[in-house]
Amino acid sequence: MTIATLDFQTLANTGFPLVTLAPGEVVFAQGDKGDKMYVIRSGEVEIERDGKVVEKLTDGGIFGEMALIDGSPRAATTRAKTTCEVAPITEKTFLFLVHETPFFAIAVMRTLAERLRRTNPRS
């Protein structure tokens, strides 16, 4: 699931500049505290769980949303596969985006539902 319509200028205006990641750079590790989620502006990241790649994301993809929403430790490790530009989104920015761009909340919920369905073989 991607958030292709997200206006990156809106993110920049909230005071959170884009972050550039080098290939192989770990954004966060499984078990870390989750205080941000990320939207990929460009590049590719891999989501690893217990050392196995479970998902690859590109432009417009989001990751880290579960820990931001429920405050639990990170469920997976995320690593840049290529040079990436990502927009870090704190809880304050998340609430701003939900208010200013309601589609953002729907896209996050759809991503969560899609990931849940993939992990639950009965859905």
Q: Count the strands?
A: 8
- Return the string of H and E elements: HEEEEEEHEEHH
Instruction: Name the CATH homologous superfamily.
Output: Jelly Rolls
Percent helix, as a range, is 25-40%
* Parts with pLDDT < 50 across at least 5 consecutive residues: none
Describe the structure.
The chain has 123 residues and is of the alpha+beta class. 33% of the residues lie in helices and 28% in strands. The protein has one domain: Jelly Rolls, CATH 2.60.120. The chain is built from four helices and eight strands, in the order H-E-E-E-E-E-E-H-E-E-H-H.
Key attributes of the depicted protein:
123 residues, alpha+beta, Jelly Rolls, 4-stranded antiparallel beta sheet, 4 helices, 8 strands
List the helices and strands and how they pair.
Blueprint: H1 8-13, E1 19-21, E2 26-28, E3 37-42, E4 45-49, E5 52-57, E6 62-63, H2 65-70, E7 77-80, E8 84-89, H3 91-100, H4 102-119
Antiparallel strand pairs: 1-8, 2-7, 3-6, 3-8, 4-5, 4-7
Helix pairs in contact: 3-4
